[in-house]
Amino acid sequence: MTLLRKLSAALVVGVLSFGLVACGKQEKHMPPPSQASGKVIHQAEVPLNYEYAARVVAYRETEVRARVGGILLHRNFVEGSEVKQGEILFEIDPDKYEAAVASARAQVAQAQANYDQSVRDADRAEELVKQKVQSTSLRDQAFAKRDADEATLMQTKAELRTAELNLEYTKVAAPISGLTSREAVSEGSLIGTDPSSSLLTTITQFDPIYVNFSFADGEYDQIRHLMDEMQQRGEKIDNLKVTVRLGEGVDYPEQGTVDFTSPTIDKQTGTLGARAVIANPDRRLVPGMFVRVTVTGIKMANAMTIPESALVQNSGGQFVYLLKKPEAPKAGENAPQGAQPAAPAAANGQPQKVAGRLMVVEQRPVKAVRKMQNGDWLIDSVKFDEKDKNKVVQGLRDGEEVVTEGQVYIEQGLMRIPQGQSLMVNVTDDAPQQAPDGGNAKASGPAQ
């Protein structure tokens, strides 16, 4: 009897040991659970920037030309130096113009004397007519001579003014402030007043300065539409702001504003010309320089952006892996193994992570339309099925969750998770909520 009990106990121990070894081998060969990370996507107001190639153009560039001819006596500036408006740059030989002024003054004096005498003669003729000792015909002749002498006086005064102006023009002043170019003619040269011989130098104004660029036709229409929406929301709309990036990739410190847009579209390029004005106190921006401009100040309301890591591309187009809660188990079925309750709300203002939840993976087509400065992608608005308005066929709704890391567990050739199968996901939700005290708090978990 004792021997039989010992044999029975040994048999039970052996069977249990074999079962434990078999279970250990089975666990050893089981694949690790599929893990991924996700993020809740929320609508938000996002700034939109538009970048274009641009060219720097002088604010003003003026040719300094001689208005009278003669010998160029003096150049009173250093080539390439800065000059002020009204500063005398060149002096032309004034001798003949001084003589012309003297001659004109003499002619004015003579005409004045003739006119004065004509006035006296006309007055006497009028008096004699009143005394009936002279005919009205002689009086009328006296009046006509008086009027003619008055016209001659006015003409000589005008000629004197012309002579004085020509004398003034022998001193060539700077029409604007700016930097001068090289002289076009040297001292001692004979200059004229025709276009081929009158140019003396050129002055360029650098501060402020213009930057010319072109809007794409469709983008400008979008910008105007977004600005109208901003005004409807009560936001203050100033001129569009512009930042400049130099050729070496360095951002220019001054910000400019768009001060002009062309009223028509260029037929050859299909673009709309625009211009920005920018302060240039250090003259770092030089006319002719090629730069990149970024137009800022535009905001889009209710925009949807997704991390670049969530965007997947294949031959069928762009899509994301959408996360959904598994369907509740039917009566008599057990809940999915590994499922964990949602974590409590974060109290430190940091993005809340919900660890280890089982999610269902679904492909959702999206259309990425613009890459944001932070690397995220702006996607097109959500589109619904024509027959079933509750069924989304493209895009995302507010609060939906997408896979941002771990797509390798879903892609073909690795640990593929067929559509509809559960996946362990750590989900982050960084959407702000209004806290009871008026501050900002973070969402307690992903939208369900």
TrEMBL record:
Gene Ontology molecular function: transmembrane transporter activity
Record GO cellular component, one term: plasma membrane
Ranges of biased composition (kind: Low complexity): 334-350
Record's keyword annotation contains Coiled coil: yes
Record-annotated Multidrug resistance protein MdtA-like barrel-sandwich hybrid domain positions: 61-201
One Pfam family linked to the record: BSH_RND
Annotated signal peptide: none
Keyword ATP-binding part of the UniProt annotation: no
Domain Multidrug resistance protein MdtA-like alpha-helical hairpin: 101-170
Biological process (GO), any one: response to antibiotic
Annotated ranges, domain Multidrug resistance protein MdtA-like beta-barrel: 208-295
InterPro entries: MdtA-like_b-barrel (IPR058626), MdtA-like_BSH (IPR058625), MdtA-like_HH (IPR058624), RND_pump_MFP (IPR006143)
Region spans: Disordered: 330-350, 428-448
Coiled-coil ranges (or none): 101-128
Record's keyword terms, sorted: Coiled coil
Family: Belongs to the membrane fusion protein (MFP) (TC 8.A.1) family.
Protein name stated in the entry: Membrane fusion protein, multidrug efflux system
Organism: Bartonella apis
UniProt lineage: Bacteria, Pseudomonadati, Pseudomonadota, Alphaproteobacteria, Hyphomicrobiales
